[in-house]
Amino acid sequence: MRVSGMQPRVAQRPLPRSTLTIQPKDRKNIKRVKHVAGALPEPSDARGAISIGLSLTDAGDYATALPYFEQALELPGTGLKRFRDKPNLISNGEKMAALYNIACCQSQMAKMAAAENDDERKEECIANGLVALAGALEAGMEDYATLRGDADLDMLRGEKFDRLTGAFEKKSRGLFGNLFQ
After folding, report:
1. What pTM did the predictor assign?
2. How far is CA 5 from CA 11, 50, 54, 93, in A?
3. Is the separation of the CB atoms in 55 and 32 below 8 Å?
4. pLDDT, tens digit, 9 for 90 and up, residues 100-139
């Protein structure tokens, strides 16, 4: 499962002459542009970067999608605008979506490393995925049933995963726990 809930906004890089007729207006065309032109549009904001990353994960290209999710954390978002001369901050929803999808990519890359018997890379991907998942939980992700059931996070599950989600789940219960639910 991926977290999105956002419409794509991307700025286009000049395409080679042979592909000028293809306009990356939606996620389907973004896949087509990558395949034909060998390049993806450059995102102008966090929403666009997340959208491009999701289209790449739909195609199973996790290694290429990962930098787009990471870039989403650096780009302007749809959050607060604190200063007139600076871009909007990234919203908590965009931050949560980017970090959750980073965790999913890292988990899938760990699965690929395990298939190639590359234990060192597998452990590195799992550690990076758990860090990203912790960031998503800090940003406000509270859907613990999804976390526990999402097949994209299978490689991250274990003792550390359980301790991480358990610690945040206890915090989210508040003073009276689940008394009033």
Report:
1. 0.73
2. 19, 10, 11, 9
3. no
4. 999 999 999 999 999 999 999 999 999 999 999 999 999 9
